[in-house]
Amino acid sequence: MSAAGCLAANDWICGEYVRSRAQELTGATVQHVWITAVSVLIGLAVAFPLALLVRARPRFAAPVLGLTTVLYAIPSLAMFSLLLPFFGLSAALVVTGLVLYSLTILVRNILAGLASVPEEAREAARGMGYGPGRLLWEVELPLALPAVMAGVRMATVSTVALTTVGALVDYGGLGTLITTGLKSFFKAQVLTASVLCVLLAVTADLLLLWLQRLLTPWTRTTRGAATTRTTRISGIRIRIRKAG
Description:
The protein is mainly alpha-helical. The protein has helices at 5-8, 15-20, 22-56, 61-73, 76-87, 91-115, 119-127, 132-163, 174-184, 187-215, and strands spanning 227-233, 236-242. The longest helix has 35 residues, at 22-56.
């Protein structure tokens, strides 16, 4: 069967669909990436001060972590319905919902990362005259990066998937193509948009993993071997033991 004939036959795999709808696919992919990136970045901007609040005031741990968990448990349809009176049918509605969903992952991982910082690193920094702000930005955050980046990776992959639900308000990126394709049973559109969504999630995860390894060279070790590495952060030498 010819390439053009696959459209008439409504085949699942159809090169002619990809060629003829390239602009539509590109637009949906760009929207998907934009919504995902903005949602994760805003989620980080909200989660970071919340994590610092919980660390500084442990009595807020239960309310903050409990609220973020409850928000994550709300079904997407109900979440968007609750936000609809405030944002209307807009991209802001989708982004806000995705930000709320990302908080439970990001807040917990930021807290876990900060808790994993060796106490001797903090003591060494204080001995060198570091104040709380400088200690946080120049010592604690760099050492907390592995856990923080792990949270960002999980939140990003989750957001790529959840963005498709934005098709309910026509701001779902590739999800909009999947939904319209399902309604008309347009097989090539459903499969192509679904595959692109999976590829986006895998690509984003690999890029963030590469960034994590670039920013945290002291975490690299030979598999199967327990090693102790010495790294220097802001002039402070820190020995980190890592099991392979």
